[in-house]
């Protein structure tokens, strides 16, 4: 397939393009072709970025809400005009099928649109404090203020929209930021940064610098940042939290998302959604369907229908419009997933389909007879791998879902109101989706998990709450 022209991007420090002596090559996971390059920021670059973000905040915090909204709408409109160029770049550096890449760009368009609306809604409240004789003729105002410079660290799997979920709310509240994009997929984030600058956001507030993991840890320790917003692996996220000191921390981490199919499940819908939820972007999503618990009366029929749909999945070059599943981000990750599959088989699990790997490409794989202690079940597999397990009683399925260190989102297919309410009350997750898979996300909704899946919530309105701090004014007219 035809690729883009070789992309060379400099990083952004105080809104200006910079480079260093250390080149960061970006490869296409499909064929390991070098499709572009940028530069790794030095320690001096990072120190300057923190300094200017502090200076930039003095400007951004004074921007009126209408101005912040205007800038966000400009970004949204520019992004909409460049859907195809963003999608192709995103597909090349991440290995995401082009049709899925386009959907991600469209989601980012919506994310900035929502942020433009939320920028006008960051209000406050009037407090009547006349609650006792001693407080007669007192009143209060309570309103949120931007918390300060923000450190954002993003992963490879959604190199545009997960960046947007950090930067759009930061712009909505009027904060400066330093963004460390994923080293595997920095080019899309840098392309977005150029749109932010073209749209008029203060230059000192815009800092996007690829750097090493150790540099990211040093940034997390810097007290001049008032919030760390991290999306990525649980091991890294919790380590960064320990290093972050007193600053606020939002962590969007991993999961081994589960789906429960009850006796009255509409099978055609469930099969279609579970296939999409388990194999989109080669399962490299923290809410990818990993565990499917099927009522024993439906197990045989569901499994047959599910496998028939999995067989239709076309693998190959992500730029091919007909491809459904591309490569994993690296051969190292594909080898890891393959070894987990082989280990599970050695422990008694059975492969129903797939299990074969060629380079970075792991075939869509379905397993059964999987025990909760196997890595493919209890850990985040982050690969095109789904487990099917039968159950007898609904309460048993709820317990099996909760038998996990993670708690991000879960799906339940049922028409029974009592089961809906019981699932909502019992499942130890940040979100319960009814007649939908946990992979579904609307960019306005509160999104986040509990247990090892993280802290805090994203979704523009809720990210705004994380990025602001309430301040009280008490007035006693005399």
In words, what does this structure look like?
By secondary structure, this protein is α/β, with parallel strands linked by helices. It folds into two domains: 7-253 and 453-473, Aldehyde Dehydrogenase, Chain A, domain 1 (3-Layer(aba) Sandwich); 258-442, Aldehyde Dehydrogenase, Chain A, domain 2 (3-Layer(aba) Sandwich). The protein is built from 15 helices and 25 strands. The protein starts with 6 loop residues before the first strand and ends with a strand. The model has no long low-confidence stretch (mean pLDDT 97).
Would you spell out the secondary-structure blueprint of this structure?
Layout: E1 7-8, E2 11-13, E3 16-18, E4 23-27, E5 34-39, H1 43-60, H2 65-81, H3 83-94, H4 98-118, E6 125-128, E7 139-146, E8 150-153, H5 161-173, E9 177-180, H6 186-198, E10 206-208, H7 213-221, E11 227-231, H8 234-243, E12 248-252, E13 258-261, H9 267-279, E14 291-295, H10 299-310, H11 331-346, E15 350-353, E16 357-358, E17 361-362, E18 365-368, H12 375-378, E19 385-391, H13 394-402, E20 406-407, E21 409-413, H14 417-426, E22 431-434, E23 450-451, E24 454-455, H15 460-466, E25 468-475
Parallel strand pairs: 1-5, 8-9, 8-11, 9-10, 11-12, 13-14, 13-21, 14-19, 18-19, 21-22
Antiparallel strand pairs: 2-3, 4-5, 6-7, 7-25, 12-24, 15-18, 16-17, 20-23
**Would you tell me the structural class of the helices and strands?**
alpha/beta
Q: What does the main sheet amount to?
A: 7 strands, mixed
Helix count?
15
Overall tally of domains:
2
Strand order of the largest sheet: 15-18-19-14-13-21-22
- Structural Rg: 23 Å
Per DSSP E runs of 2 or more residues, the count of β-strands stands at 25
Per the CATH scheme, the topology name of the largest domain is: Aldehyde Dehydrogenase, Chain A, domain 1
Can you tell me the CATH class of the largest domain? Alpha Beta
CATH architectural label of the largest domain: 3-Layer(aba) Sandwich
Strand content: 15-25%
Share of residues in helices: 25-40%
Low-pLDDT regions: none
Could you give me the name of the CATH homologous superfamily of the largest domain? Aldehyde Dehydrogenase, Chain A, domain 1
Overall mean confidence score, pLDDT: 97
């Amino acid at each position: 397939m035809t690729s883009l022209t070789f992309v060379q991007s400099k990083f952004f420090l105080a809104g200006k393009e910079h480079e260093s002596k250390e080149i960061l090559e970006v490869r296409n996971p499909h064929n390991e072709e070098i499709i572009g390059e940028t530069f790794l920021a030095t320690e001096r670059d990072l120190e300057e970025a923190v300094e200017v973000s502090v200076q930039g905040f003095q400007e951004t915090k004074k921007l009126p809400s209408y101005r912040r909204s205007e800038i966000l709408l400009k970004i949204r409109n520019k992004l909409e005009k460049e859907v195809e160029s963003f999608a192709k770049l995103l597909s090349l550096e991440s290995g995401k099928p082009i049709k899925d890449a386009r959907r991600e760009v469209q989601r980012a368009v919506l994310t900035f649109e929502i942020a433009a609306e939320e920028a006008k809604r960051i209000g406050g409240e009037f407090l009547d404090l006349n609650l006792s004789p001693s407080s007669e003729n007192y009143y209060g105002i309570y309103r949120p203020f931007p918390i300060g410079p923000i450190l954002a660290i993003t992963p490879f799997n959604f190199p545009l929209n997960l960046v947007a979920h950090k930067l759009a709310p930061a712009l909505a509240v009027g904060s400066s930021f330093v963004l460390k994009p994923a080293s595997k997929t920095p080019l899309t984030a840098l392309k977005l940064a150029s749109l932010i600058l073209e749209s008029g956001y203060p230059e000192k507030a815009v800092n996007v610098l690829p750097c090493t993991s150790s540099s990211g840890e040093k940034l997390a320790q810097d007290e001049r940042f008032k919030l760390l917003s991290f999306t990525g692996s649980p091991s890294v996220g919790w380590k960064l939290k320990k290093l972050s000191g007193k600053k606020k921390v939002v962590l969007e981490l991993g999961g081994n998302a589960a789906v429960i199919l009850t006796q009255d499940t509409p099978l055609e819908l469930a099969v279609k959604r579970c296939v999409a939820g388990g194999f989109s972007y080669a399962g490299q999503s923290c809410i990818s369907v990993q565990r499917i618990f099927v009522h024993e009366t439906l197990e045989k029929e569901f499994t047959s229908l599910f496998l028939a749909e999995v067989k239709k999945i076309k693998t190959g070059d992500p730029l091919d419009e007909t491809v459904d599943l591309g490569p994993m981000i690296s051969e190292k990750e594909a080898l890891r997933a393959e070894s987990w599959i082989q280990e599970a088989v050695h422990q008694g699990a059975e492969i129903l389909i797939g299990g074969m790997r060629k380079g970075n490409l792991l075939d869509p794989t379905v397993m059964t007879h999987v025990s909760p202690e196997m890595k493919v079940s209890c850990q985040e597999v982050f690969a095109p791998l789904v487990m099917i397990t039968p159950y007898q009683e609904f309460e048993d399925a709820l317990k099996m879902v909760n038998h996990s260190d993670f708690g991000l989102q879960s799906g339940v297919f049922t028409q029974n109101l009592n089961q809906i309410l019981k699932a909502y009350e019992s499942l130890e997750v940040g979100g319960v989706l009814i007649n939908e898979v946990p992979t579904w996300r609307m960019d306005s909704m509160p999104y986040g998990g509990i247990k090892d899946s993280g802290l805090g919530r994203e979704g523009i309105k809720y990210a705004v709450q994380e990025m602001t701090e309430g301040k009280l004014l008490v007035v006693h007219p005399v």
